[in-house]
């Protein structure tokens, strides 16, 4: 996967982001966990109310304290001190509890979103088709791991912050109004102008810089993961110089984006300091004349300053939290885009399940004695760049074994992709047995994370490490290892339950034999093998096909080696222009253009 400069959408305005934020946020509040979500929400609102009430009480306590001191009223002074002690006794556990509830709320929300996203990512094989929908969803892993966590943390932080700010604004506006109404009017005008200016100047650049930064960080991490996954090939090629320059190049892009962000953040910091400091003297300027005229007590000045500060903080919340807000906007955009695409894929999956016609290949169940039937099949590579087959038919009966041949790049693997449903765009009908009765061995063997047993049982894991469940005793697995000519593997690595990086530890031929074992274990009625024995010697290949003949009724192989022909009853040969020919395997030598071209 290269650079993600393509049509990856970037956020435009806050107005456009808000509905997207709500679309992602409401999933939790209206979803299966809605009771939990709403419970947390109510708890957060109640706690915020208590929090604000405490702040107002503190402001009155402070006022009484200052007035008692300035007027030397000893009894009132100690009363105010006790009031403070009482407030602290309530505030200390309350503030801790607020943090606790907010932390749990963020975690519960994150769990919900990650589970939902992971479900969508693995449903209908979305992890494979994610980028076939015209929108680039770069680094889905980062979106699931990091973006959700940041989205939830920022949303909780900002939502509770906004809630508290609104409440304290309402509460202190009353206090301040009773002291000086003009001060309240001034504050609202000042904050309105400040917020408008901030959003106008800093909104778009900071939002898109945050978006780009997330993208570049994801690209950097992906380049390092690729090195880890392909370390041996890179080491053989001595490709470290090239890989290092790719990693450095991607890091440079992170740094470059980060520098732009820091520059803009510095501008924002300067502006928000000017914005907040320029009002420091304002409350005193308004209240001092009243005090000098004897119209208010001394403590009222400090209360007015305190209330002014609170309202100013509330009204200036957007300015003060603009960095966080623009970060949240970028995370929202990334999550909303991925969710939209996952929803499209889900809808498409449902439509396919319902047997949709038109631009999609229709999949139906085959009836005995037919195991596989392709009728009027027409499809191209994604993006319609290259025709793979044009209105072609073929039928495979029970017991028949088909070898697909043709020049490299003609579309043999693509045909298996279409049959398995990985590529669905096209025309025609494909009849196969039920999905659970088919098994595909892809060209590149895949070794999942886990033990040797996990490698053998893949893609099933439900059997776990039980010893006799479903007749999968260790003895049976060891016998199958002998069948695929890996008799000493379990002993060599230290047993079936040893965990290793199997794609590194096993040779390609060993990985192909492990994959073959999975096929034998699965007992499919129709198997597909895409160059599944290309790394094996001829004797091992013969032994595996012999075992396959016993275990599986019909199979379809893709391969280049002419010696494969004898394990099949028929050959399907790609003959160019999106056409193919099916004929008995015994006629291969006489009929095959491809074979004469020097296959193998
Ligand atoms: N995801 C994809 N997007 C666009 N083109 C693709 C994609 N996958 C494969 N192709 C193209 O489709 C054509 C057929 O590829 P395919 O892998 O089916 O060939 P093949 O006959 O199996 O080749 P080989 O014998 O080398 O394995 C190739 O030209 C390939 O580049």
From TrEMBL:
Keyword vocabulary terms for this entry: ATP-binding, Membrane, Nucleotide-binding, Transmembrane, Transmembrane helix, Transport
InterPro entries: AAA+_ATPase, ABC1_TM_dom, ABC1_TM_sf, ABC_transporter-like_ATP-bd, ABC_transporter-like_CS, ABC_transporter_sub-D, P-loop_NTPase
Domain ABC transporter: 372-600
UniProt key word Nucleotide-binding: yes
One Pfam family matching this protein: ABC_tran
Cellular component per GO, a single term: membrane
Keyword Magnesium: no
Transmembrane annotation, as ranges: 40-61, 81-101, 185-203
Gene Ontology MF terms in the entry: ABC-type transporter activity; ATP binding; ATP hydrolysis activity
Boundaries of every ABC transmembrane type-1 domain copy: 42-327
Family of the protein in this entry: Belongs to the ABC transporter superfamily. ABCD family. Peroxisomal fatty acyl CoA transporter (TC 3.A.1.203) subfamily.
Name of the protein described by the UniProt record: Uncharacterized protein
Organism this protein belongs to: Ostreobium quekettii
């Amino acid at each position: 996967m290269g650079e993600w400069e393509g049509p990856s959408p970037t956020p435009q305005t806050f107005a456009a982001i808000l509905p997207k934020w709500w679309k992602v946020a409401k999933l939790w509040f209206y979803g299966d966990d809605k009771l939990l979500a709403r419970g947390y929400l109510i708890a957060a609102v109640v706690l915020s109310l208590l929090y604000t009430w405490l702040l107002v009480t503190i402001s009155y306590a402070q006022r009484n304290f200052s007035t008692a001191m300035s007027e030397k009223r000893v009894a009132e002074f100690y009363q105010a001190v006790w009031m403070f002690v009482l407030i602290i006794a309530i505030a200390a556990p309350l503030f801790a509890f607020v943090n606790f509830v907010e932390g749990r709320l963020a975690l519960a929300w994150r769990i919900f979103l990650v589970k939902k996203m992971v479900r969508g990512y693995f449903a209908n094989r979305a992890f494979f088709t994610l980028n076939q929908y015209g929108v680039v969803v770069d680094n889905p892993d980062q979106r699931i791991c990091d973006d959700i966590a940041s989205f939830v943390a920022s949303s909780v932080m900002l939502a509770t912050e906004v809630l508290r700010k609104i409440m304290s604004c309402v509460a202190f506006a009353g206090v301040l109004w009773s002291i000086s109404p003009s001060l309240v009017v001034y504050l609202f005008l000042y904050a309105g102008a400040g917020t408008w200016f901030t959003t106008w100047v800093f909104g778009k650049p900071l939002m898109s810089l945050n978006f780009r930064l997330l993208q570049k960080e994801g690209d950097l991490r992906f380049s390092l993961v690729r090195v880890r996954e392909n370390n041996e090939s890179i080491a053989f090629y001595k490709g470290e110089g090239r890989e290092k320059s790719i990693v450095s190049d991607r890091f440079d892009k992170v740094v470059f984006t980060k520098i732009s962000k820091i520059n803009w953040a510095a501008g924002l910091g300067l502006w928000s300091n000017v914005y907040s400091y320029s009002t420091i003297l304002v409350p005193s300027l308004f209240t001092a004349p009243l005090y000098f005229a004897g119209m208010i007590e001394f403590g009222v000045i400090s209360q007015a300053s305190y209330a002014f500060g609170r309202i100013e903080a509330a009204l200036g919340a957007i300015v003060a939290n603009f960095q966080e807000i623009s970060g949240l906007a970028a995370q929202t955009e990334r999550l909303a885009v991925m969710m939209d695409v996952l929803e499209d894929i889900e809808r498409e999956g449902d439509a396919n399940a319902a047997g949709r016609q038109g631009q999609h290949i229709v999949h139906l169940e085959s009836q005995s004695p037919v195991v596989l039937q392709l009728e009027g099949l027409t499809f191209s590579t994604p993006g319609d760049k290259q025709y793979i087959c044009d209105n072609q038919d073929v039928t495979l009966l029970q017991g028949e074994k088909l070898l697909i041949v043709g020049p490299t790049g003609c579309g043999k693997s693509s045909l298996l992709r279409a049959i398995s449903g990985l590529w669905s765009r096209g025309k025609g009908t494909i009849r196969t047995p039920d999905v659970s009765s088919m098994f595909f061995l892809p060209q590149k063997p895949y070794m999942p994370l886990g033990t040797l047993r996990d490698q053998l049982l893949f893609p099933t894991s439900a059997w776990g490490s039980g010893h006799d469940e479903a007749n999968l005793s260790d003895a049976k697995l060891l016998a199958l290892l002998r069948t695929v000519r890996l008799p000493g593997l379990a002993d060599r690595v230290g047993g079936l339950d040893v965990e290793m990086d199997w794609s590194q530890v096993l040779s390609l031929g060993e990985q192909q034999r492990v994959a073959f074992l999975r096929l034998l274990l699965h007992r499919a009625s129709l198997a597909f093998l895409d160059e599944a024995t290309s790394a094996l010697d001829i004797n091992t290949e013969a032994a595996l096909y012999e075992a396959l003949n016993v275990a599986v009724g019909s199979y379809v192989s893709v391969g280049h080696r002419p010696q494969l022909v004898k394990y099949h009853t028929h050959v399907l040969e790609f003959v160019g222009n999106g056409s193919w020919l099916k004929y008995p395997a015994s006629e291969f030598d006489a009929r095959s253009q491809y074979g004469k071209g020097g296959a193998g």
